């Protein structure tokens, strides 16, 4: 593979070597079997955009989610306005809900689908915002036991890239990605003392 083992990018872990791409991967990278390429700061492979989310497009993915929320909110507002302002002539035994379901089933179905999509988009956006605030990827959060760099000297979870939520969010909003520089953590001995 022609790897310079004395290079500063190679820290000596054989998991850094990608046999498919034939490269030395940075620490937070992962090979995506669907895209067939290594992705820096691999977050996840998203079927909605048919691409991996990583360092270079995480900002775009967050904007995509926010636009999804905006459009579903707009659709819900228009649908709700349509149903609410409909002139209703109810018989004495008929309810408003029954009237809307029988007279406007498409609008009611649209509202249910819109609320379902809005819920999904909100959950995804909140999850991504939490990951950005922690400077953690979805892949790292889901597979934290696999990655030795996410364990402290005591063996428990420790994110070496977390600079605090304010700094993480500010860096992401300014640069479009989070920094891979490790935070200056005290050693276990310093923590005990």
UniProtKB/TrEMBL annotation:
Per its UniProt entry, what is the enzyme's top EC class, as one word?
transferase
GO MF, one annotated term = protein-cysteine S-palmitoyltransferase activity
Keywords for the protein's UniProt record, in alphabetical order: Acyltransferase, Membrane, Transferase, Transmembrane, Transmembrane helix
- This protein's major location comes to membrane
Transmembrane region(s): 61-84, 104-127
Q: Which InterPro entries match?
A: Palmitoyltrfase_DHHC (IPR001594), PFA4/ZDH16/20/ERF2-like (IPR039859)
One Pfam family from the UniProt entry?
DHHC
Instruction: Return the EC number.
Output: 2.3.1.225
Protein name according to UniProt: S-acyltransferase
Q: Which reaction does it catalyse?
A: L-cysteinyl-[protein] + hexadecanoyl-CoA = S-hexadecanoyl-L-cysteinyl-[protein] + CoA
Top-rank taxon of the source lineage equals Eukaryota
Q: According to its UniProt record, which protein family does this protein belong to?
A: Belongs to the DHHC palmitoyltransferase family.
Q: Does the keyword Transmembrane apply?
A: yes
Coiled-coil segments, which residues? none
PANTHER family hit by this protein: S-ACYLTRANSFERASE, ZINC FINGER DHHC DOMAIN CONTAINING PROTEIN
Look up the record and give one Gene Ontology term from the biological process aspect.
Answer: protein targeting to membrane
Q: How does it sit in the membrane?
A: Multi-pass membrane protein
- Palmitoyltransferase DHHC domain boundaries: 16-144
User: Which organism is this protein's natural source?
Assistant: Aegilops tauschii subsp. strangulata (Goatgrass)
Q: Where in the cell is it found?
A: Membrane
Is Membrane included in the keywords of this UniProt record?
yes
Name a single GO cellular component: Golgi apparatus
The UniProt comment on domains reads: The DHHC domain is required for palmitoyltransferase activity.
